[in-house]
Amino acid sequence: MFVHDCMTANPITISKDTPIFEALEIIQKHKIRHLPVTRDGKLIGLVTERGLLKVSPSPASTLSVYELNYILAKVTVAEAMIKNPITISPNAPIEEAALIMREHKVGCLPVVEGDKLVGIITQTDMVEALVNLFGLRRAGSRVVLEVSDRVGVLAEITSLLKEKGVSIRSLATFEREPGLYELTFRLSVPDARGLAAELEQMGYKVISVS
Q: Which InterPro entries does the protein's record reference (predicted)?
């Protein structure tokens, strides 16, 4: 799965001269938290709801409504935007996007191709990607095995599945400790208890079946 499979293409954008109150209205209307800032289709910055609120007058301000409106009309996105935000290519693997977002502690990545903004990928998109990768919306069962790191493990397990006519919806691996892995299978059958019993007879440790 790649970034272009999960991103929001052609996202809503604003210019750096947009008043912050307009930017906040867009964010609230569309229920989003990030807005790319562009000029002639090129990304020049990014604003977040939090960043916009930071440069907005405090609700506890003693200014009059007239004064507040005057300030809000004068303060623009240019004063709140993140310049040169971290970006990603639409052809990057989805796990690369997840790693960048985790390491840099950002909630989204603008997606650029050349110098053009083509999309945006957010934490919500990453969760949706995880749901799709695991096939969670498709009927089936889940089997978790503990296996040692040796050549031929998957071949043995998939041979049994082939023999039983069972398809793999998804497969994930997790290294619990050096040389010891958990394999999480989502399978096409509604009840995998029989398969789990046969895997135990083959010497595999079954952690859970659901």
A: ACT-like_dom_sf, ACT_dom, CBS_dom, CBS_dom_sf, CBS_domain-containing
Q: How far apart are CA 11 and CA 20, in angstroms?
A: 18
- Alpha-carbon distance of 179 to 150, in angstroms, equals 8
Strand partners, 186: 142, 170
Q: At what angle do helices 193-201 and 153-164 cross, to 10 degrees?
A: 140
The highest-level CATH class for domain 3-131 is alpha beta
φ, ψ dihedrals at 166, nearest 5°: -105, 130
Q: Are 99 and 114 in contact (CB under 8 A)?
A: no
Are the C-beta atoms of residues 132 and 12 closer than 8 Å to each other?
A: no
| CATH of the domain spanning 141-209, picked from 3.30.70.260, 3.30.1360.180, 3.40.718.10, 3.40.1170.60 | 3.30.70.260
Q: Where do the structural domains in the chain lie, given as residue ranges?
A: 3-131, 141-209
CA distance 82 to 85: 6
* 131-188 pLDDT, tens digit each: 988 888 888 999 999 999 999 999 999 999 999 999 999 999 999 999 999 999 999 9
Give the CA dihedral 8, 32, 135, 157, nearest 10 degrees. 90
The C-alpha atoms of residue 80 and residue 109 are separated, in whole angstroms, by 17
Q: What is the pTM of this model?
A: 0.79
